[in-house]
Amino acid sequence: MAAPESGDGNNGAARMVTLISSDNTRFEVEAAAASLSQTLQLTILDGGGGGGDGIPLPNVDSATLSKVLEYCIKHAPAAANGGAPNATAVDRAELERFDNEFVNIDQSVLYSLIMAAHNLEIEGLQSLVAKKVADMIKGKSPMEIRRTLGFPDPTPEEQAEMNAHMLEYGWAYE
Amino acid sequence: MSPPFLPDDVVREILLRLPWHDDPSCLVRATLVCKHWRGLVTDPGFLRRVRPPVFGVFLNNPPADAHFVPAAGCVQQPCISSLLRPAPSRGWFVRDSRRGLVLLSNRARFLVWDPATDDQVAVPKPPALCDCFFHGLLADALLRRPTTTDDDDERSSSSSFRVAVALIEDGVAAAAVYSSDTGAWATARPAPAAGLRFLWMEKPGAVVGEAAHWLLSGCRVLKLQHAGGGDQHQQDEAPALSVLEPGNAPAVDDDNVQLMRTHDGALGLIAMTGLALRRWTLATTAREGGMSWWTPCDNSTIRFDESILGPRRGHRRYPGRFRDEKLSLASALALLDCREAPAWGRIVGVDEDGATVFLWRMYSIFMLRLQPTPTTPRVSKICDGYFVLKPRWKAVYPYSCFFLGGNIVT
């Protein structure tokens, strides 16, 4: 078993940290999983989050945080292997299947995830959700993209500007 | 949380994951979503992370003027009107196209043309080499001066360029480099090698770093190194000509091979034999006394095997026209009787990154995108039997650009 790096002499593999969501729910996870977040990693390396303290995350609610941690726990073993050079094809396929399922979610949950991944700087998750949104808007017209992503209706001014651009670049719609 | 308030970093990451490589128009549409997105997409820092896709190819078809043929999926539109008349007048031939600039030549001079702005710069032919051009012993490459790495003005800056020419007379090579900064030709120090022969007169060379390369017979390479990096020495140092003689010569058909720059920036070779495209990169090993070898790349062979081809039939006829229509590899191949020729097609062009290959076959030009998965290229037909590429002119010159937010990005 590859032991996750731990800054102190504690029993690394089993080390747990506590994360506290904005609505004061406490989540206890392995330090290795929480360390996928660049933001948390430093705190954890400094020995924070252990015992009764916990790390408060005022920007993330409990529903989102549990979703984020689900991702981290699944991806932590592969990350601990340093990008998993010795991972089998089966492992990779399993992770891929998990990822596909993972982002198959309601749009409002997706936005919370995007913001959480961004704030916590979880690289793999950022990339995963960005890909999901790109898939949602690809092949769509600007107006459809606005509707898909829940933009407010364009102001008359914006609409006029879009129309002007449409005239000039209408060819881009094929 | 509403998406217009997504942080810019997040929006950029989303936009980068759009399939712009296959469908450049998706980024154009993104610029129309709102003013803020337009700002993000047209930002030079963002555009540097996006490689412009091949927009189409130039080709010479004498005695007619040079043509521009748009790639599949790229519709013609007003911005491109300058592309449709590349030749200022009769007698100009396209010689090369790199980084959004196009090099043309006629008997008397060169012309460097920027289709995005329609700027044209005339370049006289180098006096010392002038006489030889009438023998057609000319191969040129165009080098856009590499700009400093992290400057923000990289994209918008200079149309500073260099033109490199080489010729071989009686087996001895001579070359010169024109720099738009000095406005003068610098004659290259000759290479101490004789018995040389260009493999292809018309195919452009490959530019890797500060050097232009042309393919010689026997898979040797004529290398023209421009005066090395340091700007202060540029005036003093003459360009240097040398011949790279790799330890091996891959078995390739002389008619069906081209030099290229690989996607990781090394000198590469691509050839077609039978139903396979093969790729090599020139690697130098320390233990052989610095000798270089043509080494197969990763995923070096792109094989069109019979399982892709489907059941063999007799001679199939082309369906009428399907210009600008994306073909699956299977249907493209099924149109052709693979038994009648040793190679499926003839390599007529490779883009600057070695990511797109152009094949000519049966009066048609096919475009193979090797990205993102080299082993299963996306095939489309860009030009269908409207003219015959004469054997002497079997080369196309890919032109890459984006049209974004009112600007052409190359």
UniProtKB/TrEMBL annotation, chain A:
InterPro entries found in the cross-reference section: SKP1 (IPR016897), SKP1-like (IPR001232), SKP1-like_dim_sf (IPR036296), SKP1/BTB/POZ_sf (IPR011333), Skp1_comp_dimer (IPR016072), Skp1_comp_POZ (IPR016073)
Superkingdom, taxonomy of origin: Eukaryota
Boundaries of every SKP1 component dimerisation domain copy: 124-163
Magnesium found in the keyword field: no
Keyword terms, alphabetized: Ubl conjugation pathway
Subunit structure: Part of a SCF (SKP1-cullin-F-box) protein ligase complex.
UniProt similarity note: Belongs to the SKP1 family.
Task of the protein: Involved in ubiquitination and subsequent proteasomal degradation of target proteins. Together with CUL1, RBX1 and a F-box protein, it forms a SCF E3 ubiquitin ligase complex. The functional specificity of this complex depends on the type of F-box protein. In the SCF complex, it serves as an adapter that links the F-box protein to CUL1.
Protein name (Swiss-Prot/TrEMBL): SKP1-like protein
Organism: Eleusine coracana subsp. coracana
TrEMBL record, chain B:
Pfam families reported for this sequence: F-box
UniProt domain F-box: residue ranges: 6-50
SMART domains the record matches: FBOX (SM00256)
InterPro entries in the record: F-box-like_dom_sf, F-box_dom
Alphabetized PANTHER family for the sequence: F-BOX DOMAIN CONTAINING PROTEIN, EXPRESSED, OS07G0120400 PROTEIN
Name used for this protein in its record: F-box domain-containing protein
